[in-house]
Amino acid sequence: MGIHERYNLTNVINAAGTFTPLGVSRSPAIVGQTVAEALSEFFLIDELQDVASAAISQWTGAEAGAVTHCVAASITLAIAAAMAGNAPDRVAALPDTNDMPNRVVLPAGHAINYGHSIVQDVRLAGATPVLAGSAQQCAIEALESELRQARTACLLLVSSRLVGGKPIDIARAVRVAHDCGLPAIIDGAAQDMRVKEILATGADLVLVSAQKYLASPTAGLVIGRKDLVGAVRAHEKGIGRAMKPTKEGICGVLAAIAEREKADLRAWRSMQEEKVARFVQRANDHPGVSATSIADPVGMPFPRAQLTIDPAHAGMDAATLAVALRSGSPSVWVMNHALKEGHMILELVPLSDKELETINSRISAILTA
What we know:
The chain is an alpha/beta fold and 369 residues long. It has two domains: 29-262, Type I PLP-dependent aspartate aminotransferase-like (Major domain) (Aspartate Aminotransferase, domain 2, 3-Layer(aba) Sandwich), CATH 3.40.640; 264-367, Alpha-Beta Complex (Aspartate Aminotransferase, domain 1). Helix content is 42%, strand content 17%. The chain contains 15 helices and twelve strands. The protein has helices at 3-6, 29-39, 45-60, 71-84, 88-93, 118-124, 140-147, 170-179, 195-199, 226-234, 247-262, 265-283, 311-314, 318-327, 353-367; strands at residues 12-15, 64-68, 103-107, 128-132, 151-157, 184-187, 205-209, 220-224, 289-295, 303-309, 331-334, 343-346. Helix 8 links the parallel strand 5 and strand 6. Helix 2 runs antiparallel to helix 11 and helix 12 packs parallel to helix 15 (353-367). 46% of the residues are buried.
């Protein structure tokens, strides 16, 4: 009996990407084996963190790294590190920041909600989030104006679909933060395949999710300056106690990084392109559907399938089709950010050919019913 049958759980096909409410990703067997082994052993957790830091540094070229419970925890702890450093009295004081500079600036279009608002991650550290510009645009000058008064940090977001408004030049924003004497922290949760590129902007800390494309157990990675990473770890004795990584999480991260370093990413990318091409070819047979392969807008190394739905010929719009897919069995989830524009976007990275055929069969059945 499988785990879904054992606990009477909904069978899901996840074409929505590394989406937390669906369990994010699938881990390779070696990661699962490493996690199982770790669960039956004892460790010095600080020693495990040291090993993880060395592995993260080797993988990314950064000075240091640390594992947290998740990226939301990483944001809070990175802000705490920027405000309080590793001074024991300040670590113990948070989230009381009465004697500390506590203004954290982020572009208004980066104040996203990914299940909760990113500004709440800032507030959890005791800091005050300050939004620069508007949701439609944050000019560098507007960002700089707020940073001149901030005295804490600049928080920026790199995301394929969540950032709002006109894109901001991240490297230039980092330079402006440094000109103002402040560290730049970049939340790149789903951007682990681009972490070296993001670090090259000069960011002081880059935060990525280990359970997304790296496919480890749930964990956040804090990557960058040795002093700030050390301060993040110091807060494990403060507010970070509630955000600590597990032994199996850290060991799973180590196994996942080892797998990533062995991978032939060029061959992997070709495999993803071929998978999307096969799916798109089949999807174009559905009435009222025009399917194509689209690139990731911020440069992740794989395409997605975009199905443009013509209600006049399909008998329904994209949003209605997405609801029908989700309501059936198995429950098929797709990306929902472009449904209002008539586009149903699917990310196929973790899916098998059998699952792809199931999706196409379900679409065909719905549209021809």
